[in-house]
């Protein structure tokens, strides 16, 4: 009974996360650019010594320079979370490893592809095959991370 509750909880969380991804993807190009610009500015403030003393022009140039990595890191991260949540919704202890990894990764990849198609209809946005690949890698990393954590826990428990 406890096992089914866990799977249902992860399924609900995965659906909520997918809705959040859809919401971010629905923002037009200008709003999306503002979002990544704010994150780029935070990166500068947190990690670049003296960033606050730079001129506005130099700060904006930095924000423009880190825009691409910020956006792609966001893609990979949001899909790593999605892959982890789908893993939790589909994980069965007795299932073969390839299914444990493959099903959540495939679901995350399919969702990434549909999300990029959705962006074709959002003003100022575009659907990119590259983003599907980045999202797919993010989902895979999330799934592999949680698989690694479970195997570590199982090894630790078996040595007790």
From TrEMBL:
Keyword vocabulary terms for this entry: Membrane, Transmembrane, Transmembrane helix
Record carries keyword Nuclease: no
Stretches of the chain forming a coiled coil according to its record: none
Keyword Transmembrane appears in the UniProt entry: yes
InterPro entries assigned to the protein according to its UniProt record, in alphabetical order: Phosphotransbutyrylase, VanZ-like
Every VanZ-like domain range: 10-148
Domain of life where this protein originates: Bacteria
Stretches that traverse the bilayer: 9-26, 132-150
Name of this chain's protein: VanZ family protein
Provenance organism: Ruminococcus hominis
Lineage: Bacteria, Bacillati, Bacillota, Clostridia, Eubacteriales
């Amino acid at each position: 009974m406890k096992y089914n509750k866990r799977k249902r909880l992860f399924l609900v969380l995965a659906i909520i996360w997918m809705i959040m991804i859809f919401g971010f993807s629905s923002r037009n190009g200008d709003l999306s650019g503002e979002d990544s610009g704010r994150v780029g500015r935070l990166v500068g403030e947190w990690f670049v010594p003296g960033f606050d003393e730079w001129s506005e022009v130099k700060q904006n140039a930095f924000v423009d320079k880190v825009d691409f990595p910020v956006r792609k890191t966001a893609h990979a991260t949001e899909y790593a979370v999605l892959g982890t949540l789908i893993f939790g919704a589909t994980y069965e202890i007795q299932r073969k490893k390839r299914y444990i990894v493959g099903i959540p990764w495939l679901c995350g990849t399919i969702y990434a592809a549909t999300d990029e198609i959705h962006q074709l209809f959002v003003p100022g946005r575009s659907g990119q095959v590259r983003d599907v690949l980045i999202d797919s890698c993010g989902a895979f990393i999330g799934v592999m991370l949680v698989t690694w954590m479970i195997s570590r826990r199982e090894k630790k428990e078996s040595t007790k």
